Description:
Blueprint (H helix, E strand, L loop, with lengths): L7 E3 L2 E3 L6 H14 L3 H10 L2 E8 L4 E8 L9 E7 L2 H15 L8 H5 L3
Parallel strand pairs: 2-5
Antiparallel strand pairs: 1-2, 3-4, 4-5
Amino acid sequence: xxxxxxxxxxxxxxxxxxxxxxxxxxxxxxxxxxxxxxxxxxxxxxxxxxxxxxxxxxxxxxxxxxxxxxxxxxxxxxxxxxxxxxxxxxxxxxxxxxxxxxxxxxxxxxxxxxxxxxx
Length: 119
């Protein structure tokens, strides 16, 4: 289970939790304003680097969900997926891009639980 440091599996994909710290939440606000003109470029970079991007509506929670799944078998994140949510689809997309570009630094996706279980 994700809460115990192991990704939650569904449909052959492991879901990881990538939560933002309070500091990252504040930094996201600045980052999202600065990067808004590059939204298309960042999205293209993400998808062309072997990731599947999905946008859907969550009727139960009344918000948009953007999911990012790594489909490149040569990457450490293969078949891992994380999600971002917001009332606005563009903000959900920006959150997903921020997690990929800044939080994970376009590298291995680690959750808080996974970091606590290392060392």
